[in-house]
Design a protein that fits this description.
Urease, subunit C, domain 1, TIM Barrel, 414 residues, alpha/beta
Amino acid sequence: MSPMTSRSSIAIINAYVVPVAAAPIENGTVLVEDGVITAVGTDVTVPDGVPTLDARGRHVLPGFVEAHAHIGTHEEGEGWAGNDTNEMTHPDGSALRALDGINIEDEGFRDALLGGVTSAVIKPGSGNPIGGQTVAIKTWGGRTVDEQIISESVSVKSALGENPKRVYGDKKQLPSTRLGVANVIRKAFVDAQNYVAKRDAAAAEGKPFDRDLGKETLARVLAGELVWDQHVHRADDIATALRLQAEFGYRLVINHGTEGAFLADVLAEKDVPVIFGPLFTSRSKVELRHRAIVNLGILAAAGVRVAITTDHPVVPINFLVHQASLAVKEGLDPQVALEALTTNPAAFLGLDDRVGALAPGLDGDVVVWSGDPLDVNSRAEHVFITGTEVFTWDAAAGNGRGRGVVAERMERFA
């Protein structure tokens, strides 16, 4: 665990507390000490010296988790100079890491706080069949991204469908078809299996062995240490994703899942989660022709565990909660909507020992909302990351910056 810049204590009192993983609490208290939640309930003793925030009439929830974003790697308004999302020079990018391309000065991180998003999994783009490793970070709090890391070992991004076949088809090289995309992935895993066998044999015999960063990464996927994050939209591509998982036995999470509702029963039976979205987009390509917000509710009703993504900057990250609100309007259960923003993505991606709920032992990432966050009129008024208030809504300023983020970066470390 990389140290956060600031780990503070705070008691948020008299609130309508929504832990998400437990029943809501009237007139509740959330106590954070040294950056960690130590108590949640109605009978909480606040230690001397711990500051309090009276949240009477307010809803208090865990910070939201954006499960699939490109903040910091696809910087807004910077053109090619700020776009480090895809290394589209080789279809197998398993040795690449999104962490190495994140600029925490990207404006998207400020927007995240505005929308109550305190954690984000940053992923490579979908230009390659295998895009590279993802990383989970806090959305504020460090001088460098290294000080914001929750986990470097989250997942590997992979893509099926139109994007990789278009990128390499334009170059007149493999893969230019769906057949070719699946072949690249399948061959990479077979090569990784062979690599592991040779590596283990060399270790048993005490012989030297040349390491390969990409194969080491895929070996971790095969061992179940890293999730396989599969970009996929169409039902036939989802079927391919399930076929590849059956062959190699890794932990699969569907990303986007536009036509997942067509296979909802299959995904539920196999317990394959779906990070659904973005929801506020046009049908800009063929594989999005069946894009519909109602599909998320259909997936959840079938028993599929779901999360919601903005795919920032496709949809601004502060609109994550608004996507959930419209999904509720189209049939998604409100409790499931909150889980899709918190506990579910944390569980899918192995982050639930740190974030995703209000419970003792978890990080003090707490957001005070003016009302029910699923009401589009509600706003995040106070945002805490590991107990430190990093954002306060300033109604007079009216620009969504607030006391916590309007200051220049260096003021945070004075």
